[in-house]
Structure formats: C-alpha cells, structure tokens
Amino acid sequence: MSEPSTTHPAGELRDLLGESESVTILCHNNPDPDCLASALALGRIAAAAGVDEWQIAYSGEISHQQNRAFVTLLDIDLERFDPATARDRPDGELLAFVDHSIPGRNNRVPEETPVDIVVDHHPAEAVDARFVDHREAVGATATIFTEYVRDLDADLDADLATALLFAIRRETLEFLRGTTRAEYEAAGYLHERTDTDLLRQLATPSVTGATLDAIATAIDNRRTRGSVLISHVGRTTERDALPQAADYLQTLEGVETAIVFGIVGRSIHLSGRTTDPRIHLGDALDDAFADVGTAGGHQDMAGGEVPLGVFADYTADDEHLLAMVEAVVSDRLVSELRLSEDSSG
C-alpha cells in the first residue's frame, strides 16, 4: 500500500504523470468547487508533464446552482464516467481521484479497482494508490493543488487561479471552517492572479425556486432536541438544497448541530453541520447508517446516502413512504446522538 508523500509530492506526481499517455481525472459524485478546481489543476499539471490526453469525468449530478455556475463560467469540459472502463484500463492510462479516495465511496468505481493517483483531504482509511497525498489536516484539496502549481511553476492563468481561490473560500466557508495556515498561504499566492469579476460571479449564482422550496420545507419540518436540530425536505430533485438547508438551520439561535435529510430519486440523502466540539459528525453519521448505506465526513460537516431499498417497494403512497423514512432516520439519529425524546418545533 502506498503511503502519503512526505517529501516533494509535486515532483513525484509530475514524474508519475510523465510516464503515462493519458489520465482520467475522476470527480466524486455531485462534484463541488473544491473537487472541480482540483481536477482542473491536475489536468494542467498533466499537460505540462507531457500527457497526451487528459479528461475530467464525474458521476452523479451537478445540481447545486453554484456548482453549475462554476462549470459554465470556467468552461470546464466534463465527461460522464463509465464504471465499466475503470478496471480494464490500457497500459499507460492512469486513473486519478481528486477530493475523494476510496473506490465505491462517493463514486461509482467498482470496489477493489486499482487507482493510480489520490489527492484528498477528507477523512478515510486504507487509501491505496501508486501516488497518495492524503492530508486530513488541511481545509481543502484545492490548497494541496495550489502548492503543486506553485512548486512546479505550472501555468497559472486567471481562470485556474480564480477556480482554486474560490474553491478554498467555499470549502472553508470563507476561512471560518477547518482553516489552516496553508489555506491563507495559498490564498495569498492566488490573490494577485485572480479575476475578481469572475470571482464575484461565482460567489453570487441565482437560486432555483425548487431549492428555495426545499429549504422552506426543512424550516417547516424542523424539530429540536436540546442543541440538535433534525429536519427533512421531503422528496426533492434538488440534492444540494440539503447542505444549504443545514447551513441555514445551523445558524438558528440555540442550535449547534443541524441534520437535514430527504428523498432524492431512490435514495435518502443526509447533510449535517455542527459547531459542537463534543460531536464528530462524520463518525456519528457513519455509525448511524454504515450498515444500510454510506456516510461520513469531517468533525463539523458530514453527509450520507442510504438506498431506499425495501422502503420504495413497500408502498406506492409517497406520503406513507416519507413518514416511514422520517421515523427510521430520526430514530437512528436520536439513538446515535443520545438525544432525549422531548422535541420542539
């Protein structure tokens, strides 16, 4: 198993890329700015290393209005990922993960698929690849790629600088969450190279009516137990409304932890935020739902996905389905977080 690089990781990455003919840079499901900017930076590094062909691929959906704006304004060329191509790659073709690290977790890569490159900052165990730079301490994967670009003296035009800076700002909630000295150093390096008008456009995308409706539903359905708020958005097509609702509800007076869930397609999605130092939200969600789905994340922000499975087959009545999902998910959260049964709206 490869270990994270401790000396000159940028040079090691460049050398590995230089041995290859092509690289597929795979984003995680529903890629966000940190993932997309990191993929863009890796593509530039690959091109500079002499890689003939590189592509950015993704699974899932790009549904958050900010993520869609990011792709459009930066003109990022994305391709849909075909899981069937992951295992039987021709010699000389590399598979790279950015902002995620384990096959089958937050991606549609078959488990046990060999991975060549992993660069990530999310908590994970047993990360295995030919090149691994896994730094849980830093606040954004884009911070790591900014270091690479600087160390390799790679081409850093205004678009890439803006993408990386916006990603760092967004991932750290404007330097208020999980920020280290590395984020400030990266931002200082990127600042003078950034297109400020483009940065402003990225920060202020329009919001869809469906997103507002989902957030409003979460507000209406909120229940609090002490400093913990649990709510749901019902059924929605706006997956990324969940973290937006969690961000908003976590600011409610007296609330330290907000967890929002909802049905998207044939899965239950969860998103949580906390400022309570006694709770590691990623571990809590993993413990609560690992037996039925996938969940995890950082101490202060986390998410998860649980297939509807038998729920969807049990009833065709959407209202009944929502009631069952609400009961089961809420009970698991109440049990895992050891909350009292007393609640308020």
From TrEMBL:
Domain DHHA1: 227-315
Pfam family, one: DHH
Organism, as annotated: Halosimplex carlsbadense 2-9-1
Protein's recorded name: Phosphoesterase RecJ domain protein
Boundaries of every DDH domain copy: 23-168
Single GO term (MF): nucleic acid binding
Protein origin, superkingdom: Archaea
InterPro entries with a match to the protein in the record: DDH_dom, DHH_sf, DHHA1_dom, Oligoribo/pAp-PDE_c-di-AMP_PDE
